[in-house]
Specification:
With about 230 residues, the chain is an alpha+beta fold. The chain is about 25% helix and about 30% strand.
């Protein structure tokens, strides 16, 4: 039987299959409109429609002047409750403290801009904090914050108050979504967490909303040997 599938859907499926087959990994560039036109002998309008629909479906994202890239897997809604790391440690009767590595305003990375739905906003607040249980690093917290939703974030002393505690007190959070992954520590993460490179870690990617607007996007990385996830 003759295949009657519209050609733009054939192009879309080609890209989706390439992502599933790991031909194009997260944040890698997919073929341009011109390349797709040549490969499939289609018009630019057809190639544009395929890329546009994949972007609208959050499978791809576009960076002006650079091209179209594979998105991170979007977090799914979850009933998982992530406790404040300080409360977890102290509940075990252990000493908790934090080391602030970075706490500043930065240009928004593409994935953070997409997850936080920043639109035309080009900057956000950023923090990188290492949390300890007794003298061992237990969590590396990388957090991207919407300036509009949390305007005073740079005033917080993250050495004495966790970002999670501050947000609970000041920003009414209405929803959260998560991805939980097993990853291998790269050299930078390994150095901070005092583990060997490629050691197994648990990484929780978390997006929180205030009302209908994303407020924070964070990555919480834990040494697999020192952390277990409880629900």
């Amino acid at each position: 039987m003759r295949n009657t599938k519209p050609i733009y859907q054939v192009v879309k499926q080609h890209i989706i299959d390439g992502i599933h087959n790991k031909r194009w990994l997260e944040h890698t560039k997919v073929p341009s409109e011109n390349s797709l036109c040549q490969e499939f002998s289609v018009s630019r309008m057809t190639a544009n429609r395929a890329l546009k629909e994949l972007t609208e479906e959050s499978i791809l994202y576009r960076v002006q002047g650079l091209g179209t890239f594979v998105s991170e897997s979007l977090p799914v809604k979850s009933v998982l409750q992530i406790k404040d790391i300080s409360e977890e440690v102290e509940a075990r009767g252990n000493r908790f403290f934090s080391q602030v590595i970075s706490h500043k305003q930065i240009d928004a990375p593409p994935q953070a801009s997409r997850f936080l739905d920043l639109g035309s906003a080009t900057q956000l607040f950023y923090s990188l904090v290492l949390h300890f249980e007794n003298d061992e690093p237990i969590q590396l917290e990388e957090r991207f914050i919407s300036k509009k939703q949390v305007p005073n974030y740079l005033e917080v002393d993250l050495a004495t108050e966790t970002a999670n505690h501050y947000l609970k007190q000041t920003t009414p959070l209405s929803d959260a979504k998560h991805i939980i992954e097993a990853i291998a520590a790269d050299s930078g993460v390994a150095e901070l967490l005092k583990i060997d490179k490629d050691s197994p870690c648990i990484m929780i990617t978390r997006i929180t909303w205030s009302g209908n607007t994303p407020a924070t996007y964070s990555k919480l990385t834990h040494p697999g040997s020192r952390y277990s996830l409880e629900t």
